[in-house]
């Protein structure tokens, strides 16, 4: 067993690095490192042996006064991209980080305070490393959990607990554990012979998902048998039964969801918004936040995730990956006891990133606000598309395009080698709506921009009316929404002639993502009020002029709603103002739309000022002759 203790790069070496990622042949890793807040142990070359003594204070828990968040040194087993982003979050908080990773140039090496070069699967190395830390955590679950269990008995603070790591490391054991706590799962069974897997195929049917119990991630360790004849070859591809296998019933899911759950030392939890993960070749490519699913599905997913994490031990951030089935069941797929790819977006889109949250949790600090500060976010993984310099060149091109996109943030992991499908970095795009961030992703990937005629774009607003005779008035609202590029739907919903349609339409509006409804009605004008009584989505009523009472009956009907059922309204027949009011409502959480609404007001002001100037210059008689008589 050998390990070495390295310092972070010196200030001089940082100064010599190129400030731009495009100056070198391929993206360079970050060159600066946080300076130690207090003297560190000597960073000369050390050989980890049984006789190696922990360095003198300050290390682990310091007796010195706290100058910042904490004096506790956080030790991380693993120095990959997750470790790097943990260190970056720690730098903002003034938390000292020590990394144990076998690679000298691992991603976290450039931003940690200490880097011990050694294996996190070697018990003696992990034990020596732990002596330098006040709390020990992981950025990868494939570590020596047996040693962690021994260290806990010796009083070393490990978060999450070794028992949790052991459960997560073995996916079959993980499924067995969660099933005992009533967590919904796909049906599964252990297999250790050809006859047992054939029996499983008869029980579950085909296709049949065959999985390795251990060391399975990013699609590795999984294989599908489409019929009984493929079982032998599938088992062989996974290393044989001696490798440890189990099977799952094939799950016909409509979406893959994920929930990041943070658990504090006292067992309290907070959950991040449910996201959708989009995979290709079993590797996550895109994460959309928040997930476009009904509220009841979000609540169900959050409940399943929270219940699963409460069954485990220890503090930290956990990722719960889920399947949403065709019949609206939410099934747990697997859990990661650490920050996760599906939570990368939180750095830009949430008030507290998953990395800061993990540090808060394991250090016993108050958990932060997990809610989103941006209405919508999308994360795109930068995956290796080729080997060597060709792959780096393609990554460069993607990064260059991202730098020209509003709301986009680039994260480059600084891995020294690129391979096909290897995660090299990610790009997060935040914006005012899911439509806008998807459009920016299209631009990034040089795809055709969203065409509403070709792609089903979710409407943000609805225009409804009791009859097609109302369309000549209500079209003015449609013109306004189109002018502001707000996706909307327009249809006929009669409160009197199609009451069942109105009922189901109103109940579905919030779940379908509608944010405002413009409802036109004449005569009795029950439509706006009835819809408002069935949904929490704001409703704007447009009184339609009638031949009998010229629309006053419609106006009075809309404005005389009982307490608790608010309906906004406008002048009789003024659907244009209804459209503009809808724009202002949507603009309250959409800065770009707010800018457009302000520009519209300025245009109106300028138009009036131009008319005033013209009237003053021409005089009323000539002005009337030129501009008013023709009207």
UniProtKB/TrEMBL annotation:
InterPro entries: Ade2_fungi/plant, ATP-grasp, ATP-grasp_carboxylate-amine, ATP_grasp_subdomain_1, PreATP-grasp_dom_sf, PurE_ClassI, PurE_dom, PurK. GO terms for biological process: 'de novo' IMP biosynthetic process. Keywords: ATP-binding, Decarboxylase, Lyase, Nucleotide-binding, Purine biosynthesis. GO terms for molecular function: ATP binding; metal ion binding; phosphoribosylaminoimidazole carboxylase activity. Pathway: Purine metabolism; IMP biosynthesis via de novo pathway; 5-amino-1-(5-phospho-D-ribosyl)imidazole-4-carboxylate from 5-amino-1-(5-phospho-D-ribosyl)imidazole (carboxylase route): step 1/1. Its EC number is 4.1.1.21. PROSITE patterns: ATP_GRASP. It is an enzyme of class 4 (lyase). Residues 175-363 form the ATP-grasp domain. Residues 33-69 are annotated as: Disordered. Gene3D superfamilies: 3.40.50.1970, 3.40.50.20, ATP-grasp fold, A domain, ATP-grasp fold, B domain. It catalyses: 5-amino-1-(5-phospho-D-ribosyl)imidazole-4-carboxylate + H(+) = 5-amino-1-(5-phospho-beta-D-ribosyl)imidazole + CO2. In the C-terminal section; belongs to the AIR carboxylase family. Class I subfamily. PANTHER family: PHOSPHORIBOSYLAMINOIMIDAZOLE CARBOXYLASE, PURINE BIOSYNTHESIS PROTEIN 6/7, PUR6/7. NCBIfam families: PRK06019.1-5, purE, purK. This is phosphoribosylaminoimidazole carboxylase. It comes from Oryza sativa subsp. japonica.
